[in-house]
Design goal:
The protein is built from 2 helices and 10 strands, in the order αββββββββββα. It has 215 residues and is an alpha+beta fold. The strands form 2 sheets. Strands 3-2-1-6-7 form a 5-stranded antiparallel sheet, with helices on one face. Strand 4 and strand 5 (134-135) form a beta hairpin.
Length: 215
C-alpha cells in the first residue's frame, strides 16, 4: 500500500488565540518602545547641543578670541551663514567670530573659522532659547568671550542664557523623576548645566516655563 503523508497545522481556534496574544503583546510593548525611542532621541539632542556649547567656550579660551553659536538654516553649505533671527531647531553653527576690531559681529568673515556645523533637530523636538527674562524674541545667539564668559549683547556684560528642549510628551515624567524634556542653564561664567529631572525642568527656576505648554 502506498504510504500516506499527513500534514498537521494550526486549527482556526489556535490561529485566533495566537493572533490575540500577538495583539496583546503589541498593545503593551508598543507604547514602551515609543517611549524608549523618544527618550533616546531627546538624550542625543541635548548632548549634541551641550557638546556645541563646550566647543564654543573651550575654543574661545584656547584661541583668546570670541566664539559664536547661532542658528544657521544652511549649516551644511560650503560657506554657512549665521542667521540670528532664525531658530536653533533648523540647525546651528559654532565659529570663531572676531571682526577686524577684534569684536564679534555674528558674521563669518575675515579669518573667522567654522568649528562645528549641526543639522536640524528632529521634527518632534522644539528647541527654545532665552535669558532670565524668558524667551528671546529677537536675535538668538550665544557668544563666548576669550574669558569663556557669555555676552548678553555683541559687546555686553556676562549674562545667563537658557536652552530648553521639549517634544510631544510635554511635561511628562518618564519614570524615576526624569522629565521628557531638558533644560540647559548657561551661567554667567559660561559653564552649561543640564537639567533632566522633572522637578528642575518644570520648576519656577526655569524662565522658559518648562514643557507643560506642550503637554
Amino acid at each position: 500500500m502506498p504510504m500516506r503523508h499527513t500534514q498537521s497545522g494550526m486549527s482556526l481556534i489556535e490561529l485566533m488565540v495566537t493572533l490575540f496574544i500577538v495583539a496583546i503583546s503589541i498593545s503593551i510593548g508598543g507604547p514602551q518602545f515609543s517611549q524608549f525611542i523618544a527618550n533616546n532621541r531627546m538624550a542625543a539632542a541635548i548632548n549634541e547641543m551641550n557638546v556645541s556649547l563646550h566647543i564654543g567656550r573651550t575654543e574661545a579660551i584656547k584661541r583668546n578670541s570670541f566664539a559664536s553659536i547661532c542658528p544657521s538654516p544652511n549649516w551644511d553649505a560650503v560657506n554657512p551663514t549665521c542667521v540670528p533671527t532664525g531658530s536653533f531647531s533648523d540647525g546651528w553653527i559654532v565659529f570663531i567670530d572676531a571682526d577686524n576690531d577684534g569684536l564679534p559681529n555674528l558674521t563669518i568673515d575675515g579669518n573667522d573659522t567654522v568649528l562645528q556645523s549641526h543639522g536640524p533637530m528632529n521634527q518632534d523636538i522644539d528647541l527654545l532659547a532665552g535669558d532670565n527674562g524668558g524667551l528671546i524674541a529677537g536675535d538668538k545667539f550665544v557668544i563666548f568671550q576669550p574669558s569663556g564668559y557669555p555676552m548678553n549683547a555683541l559687546n555686553g556684560s556676562p549674562a545667563t542664557f537658557h536652552l530648553q528642549m521639549c517634544d510631544y510628551r510635554g511635561a511628562k515624567d518618564t519614570g524615576a523623576g526624569i522629565a521628557a524634556g531638558r533644560w540647559i542653564n548657561i551661567a554667567p561664567t559660561g559653564r552649561p548645566q543640564m537639567h533632566r529631572s522633572t522637578d528642575a525642568v518644570e520648576s519656577a527656576n526655569n524662565p522658559l516655563g518648562g514643557c507643560s505648554y506642550n503637554g
